[in-house]
Amino acid sequence: MIERSKQGAIDVVQASDPINIDYAEMFRNVFSIYAEAGQPHVVLDLQAIPLIDSAGLELLLDIQEKYRHRGGTLKLAAANPLCRDILHVTGMDKLFEIYDDSVTAVGSFVR
Predict the structure, then answer these.
(1) 8, exposed or middle or buried, with CB in 10 Å at 0-12, 13-18, 19+?
(2) Count of structural domains, the chain
(3) Which domain holds residue 85?
(4) Rounded (to 5) percent helix, strand, coil in the chain
(5) What is the chain's pLDDT, residue by residue, as a tens digit (111 residues)?
(6) Does the residue 46 lie in any domain?
């Protein structure tokens, strides 16, 4: 299940499904909505996401690239220990801004 909310001009996405091959299309559809709306500024709250596989990592990179082409960005927040390890081991933690919580991630857009 994916929940979307807005904090000022920033969109926050929360989910409890894994970001994997089985759910990649669902996530892609949600993130594409923001890309079509103009300059996307999105925080993905990873707190309840149990796992990110290689298809999920590829999806996140694709979305980030799409957002950058539109002058926006995708930031990650509240990664649980497993997701944090996956991001670190794959080097993805160097490619994304990752915050301890979504409030801090949202606040980072105004700096």
Answers:
(1) exposed
(2) 1
(3) 2-40+51-110
(4) 45, 25, 30
(5) 899 999 999 999 999 999 999 999 999 999 999 988 788 999 999 999 999 999 999 999 999 999 999 999 999 999 999 999 999 999 999 999 999 999 999 999 987
(6) no
Is 21 within 8 Å of 53 (Cβ atoms)? yes
Between the alpha carbon of residue 2 and those of residues 14, 29, 76, 85, 88, the distances in Å are 6, 11, 15, 23, 24
For residues 77 and 102, give the distance between their C-alpha atoms in angstroms, rounded to a whole number.
Answer: 5
| Residue 65's CATH number | 3.30.750.24
d(CA 60, CA 73): 11
